[in-house]
Amino acid sequence: MNYSPGLTGGMVGCHDAPAMGAPRQGRGGGWRKSGIRAAFVALTALAFVVGQQSPARADDPLQEALRKKDELERAVQNSRANTERYKTVASQYQAAVDAAYSRIADLSTQKEAAQSQADALALEIQIRQEQLALVSFQLDETKALAESLKAQAAAQQQQLASREDLYAKHLRTTYRLAMVSPLEMLLSSKSLTEFAERVQALIFVNRQDTQLANDIKALRVDTAQKLDDAAAKAKEIVGLQTQIDDQKKSLSQQKNEYDRLVAEMKSNIAQQGSVAAQAQSDRNGALVAANKANNETAVLNQRLEQAEALYAQLAAEQAARSGLGAFTGAKLPLWPLTGPITSGFGARWGGFHNGLDIAAPMYTPIRAAAAGQVVTVGKPYLAYGDTATVVIIAHGYNFSTLYGHLDDRVKVPVVRVGQMVGAGQVIAYVGMTGWTTGPHLHFMTIVNGRAVDPRPYLP
Q1: Distance between CA atoms of residues 296 and 80, nearest Å
Q2: In this predicted model, which residue has the larger pLDDT, 6 or 75?
Q3: DSSP H stretches of helix in 180-191
Q4: How many Cβ atoms are within 10 Å of 234's Cβ, its own excluded?
């Protein structure tokens, strides 16, 4: 199992570990699953032992291999971070695409509603137009009728004038006859027959005058009524024409407004379509960049594996020359701490936990699980953003134990680099340094350069 300087999952205690292969986050990462192998701790520890008497030369192959591994480790982390950033950007662009299409759907619904209103108003305007044409036709007929009535009235006026003239003549004749007494009429008649005819004629004229007067009166009333009816009808139709024309204008204004809304919706839909297309293009570009970064990560991981293998080989060769023998015990003599295991070795939460988390109150003493030499005390992973205080004990060139999240404020570690310690000796105290959410010990066993499950080695 590979791991890098940091405390992946295990040193996080109850804190969530990052997903396998995910870029390192601001908090909660640690010793990556695909990082530098556990040999880095064990063999770096041996480098402390081997290099206690003399510092490494600038051209030391082991130190050069370590430097290359560090560089590749950082490059892998950066590449993975870039991959995640591109994926995040792609997700943001996808959200923009979805929002644009959702807006297009809303606008399309609004456009269809506005178009339906515009179509309904267009039909209403057409109906009003037809009504207006019918009223105009009726108005023309009424005007023609009024002209006809006026012509009839003019003819009746002439007839009335003629009758009035005839009536005046009859009145004058009647007046003259009325001035002649019946005796004078008799004496002036040549015979009784003539007298009778003259009396009869007078009676007829009187009757005719009475009828003529009644006709003149009725004709006047009828003519006036026809003129009044024609004027009223024309006024009614003109009012109806004005009303329909006003309705038509109002409907036209409403239709123009809905037409404007439809045009505006079409423009907005086209604009949102452009936004969606651009966001889709940007999303595709981000996905291409994420894929490229992911491919680069794979290449860097391959180079990192090669660098780790080279470093492990060089460190093992140097450790073998140092005189530190191999760890031959099947079991560690004791547990470093008594307490519940809150997280075991293995996969968890999409990542990998490379040790045991043992919970205990703050400042609880931590003991060496076996005799050995202290090779690391302090914060060896600050360059990777991990502030955990760690003690590493080498029990042989092929076996080491790591104790993490140690307190460094109230009760600092009580051992030093190079010190030989016995099994059960207090080396430090439970703390909360590094990436953790509660006091506990992160305990690791590193065998032949690999972090392995500590349980088989514990009593």
Answers
A1: 9
A2: 75
A3: 182-188
A4: 15
CB-CB contact of 1 with 345 (8 Å): no
Q: How far is CA 410 from CA 389, 404, 426, in A?
A: 13, 16, 15
The residues near 341 (Cβ < 8 Å, ≥ 6 apart) are 356, 357, 358, 359
Tell me the residue type at 336: P
User: So what's the pLDDT on residue 255?
Assistant: 82
Nearest to 149 by CA among 232, 230, 221, 234: 230
Q: 10 Å Cβ neighbour count for 7?
A: 30
> What is the residue-averaged pLDDT of the chain?
78
The predicted-structure confidence for 147-195, as pLDDT tens digits, reads as follows: 787 787 778 777 767 767 776 776 666 656 556 666 676 677 777 787 7
Residue 65 main-chain phi, psi, to 5 deg: -65, -40
| φ/ψ bin of 138: left (φ > 0), alpha (ψ from -120 to 50), beta (otherwise) | alpha
d(CA 188, CA 180): 10
Q: What is the DSSP letter of 399?
A: E
Of all residues in the chain, what percent carry a pLDDT higher than 90?
29
Give me the amino acid identity at 421.
V
20 within 8 A of 376, measured Cβ to Cβ = no
What's at 193, amino acid-wise? T
Alpha-carbon distance 352 to 349, whole Å? 8
- DSSP state, residue 448: T
Q: In the structure encoding, which two tokens stand for residue 42, read together?
A: 């064990």
Tell me yes or no: is domain 1-35+324-459 CATH 2.70.70.10: yes
* Residue burial 55-76, b: 16+ Cβ < 10 Å; e: rest: eeeeebebbbbbebbbebbebb
- Residue 2 is classified by DSSP as B
- Rounded to whole angstroms, the Cα distance separating 62 from 43 reads 10
- How many Å is the Cα radius of gyration of the chain? 59
What does the pLDDT look like over 45-60, one tens digit per residue? Answer: 433 333 333 334 445 6
Residue 191 DSSP SS3? coil
Q: What is the pLDDT of residues 413-428, one digit of tens each?
A: 999 998 999 999 999 9
Structure tokens at 357: 């988390």
Say if strands 426-429 and 351-353 run parallel, antiparallel, or are unpaired. Answer: unpaired
Cβ proximity of 442 and 13 under 8 Å: yes
Lowest-pLDDT choice from 176-190, 237-251, 384-398: 176-190
Place of tokens 């005189």: 323
Domain ranges (residues) in the chain: 1-35+324-459
